[in-house]
Amino acid sequence: MKSNDLDALRRRRSEAAAERQKLELRAAHGERLVNALQMVSKGVKLEDFSAEKGLVPFAITWPERLEDAGGLVAAYVSRGRAFSIAKCLTSKVHTKSGLIGIYGNAYLGYCSAEKVSIEGMLVASEKIDDAIVFYPDPGDGAVVFDCYSSNPGKAYSVLVQGTSLIETLRNCFQS
């Protein structure tokens, strides 16, 4: 077997193994995660989610230190502060439909959702101790709520990226 053929075979086997692992993780954890995401949009089901590449309409910038992210950032804040931001965002985000999911979760993916509850994003992030993301239609930005329960008192972070969302929501991040 030629080196190129062997490399191609290794690549296909590696890709197949990665796909099997995604399916196993989805089977093991998918229902629990979707149960939490029902706080964001009632009625979503596991089969509504797709992990297909290219589905996400906007690339979120998430540096190692969240404080260094572009856009609007409230990093490591109290639940009260995160809830206050969520209430403000709810009053100002006019589009309540778009994609929802868990940031960086390759096996669950995202689903189209209607009547998205931004306050529900905060609750869902608490429930699974992870970052919940909403890409409002038409997909030119993102809203993220993250919870780090290992950081008591300042367990929450809120991130908004995308020019039009930043302009609309800037006041929600002012103390």
Describe this structure in a few short sentences:
By secondary structure, the chain is an alpha+beta fold.
Distance between the termini: 65 Å
- Taking all Cα atoms into account, the compactness measure Rg is 18 Å
β-strand percent reads: 15-25%
Q: Describe the largest sheet.
A: 6 strands, antiparallel
Overall, the morphology is globular
List the secondary-structure elements in sequence, H or E: HEHEEHEEEH
Work out the helix count: 4
- Outline the low-pLDDT stretches: none
The residue-averaged pLDDT reads 92
For the biggest β-sheet, the strand order reads 1-6-5-4-2-3
**What percent of the residues sit in helical stretches (DSSP H or I)?**
25-40%
Count the beta strands. Answer: 6
Counting helices, strands and paired strands, the structural category is: alpha+beta
Task: Describe the protein's topology.
Elements: H1 3-37, E1 72-77, H2 79-92, E2 98-102, E3 110-113, H3 118-128, E4 132-136, E5 142-147, E6 156-161, H4 163-169
Antiparallel strand pairs: 1-6, 2-3, 2-4, 4-5, 5-6
Structure notes:
By secondary structure, the protein is of the alpha+beta class. It has 4 helices and 6 strands. A 6-stranded antiparallel sheet has the order 1-6-5-4-2-3, with helices on one face. Helix 2 packs antiparallel against helix 3 (118-128). It is globular.
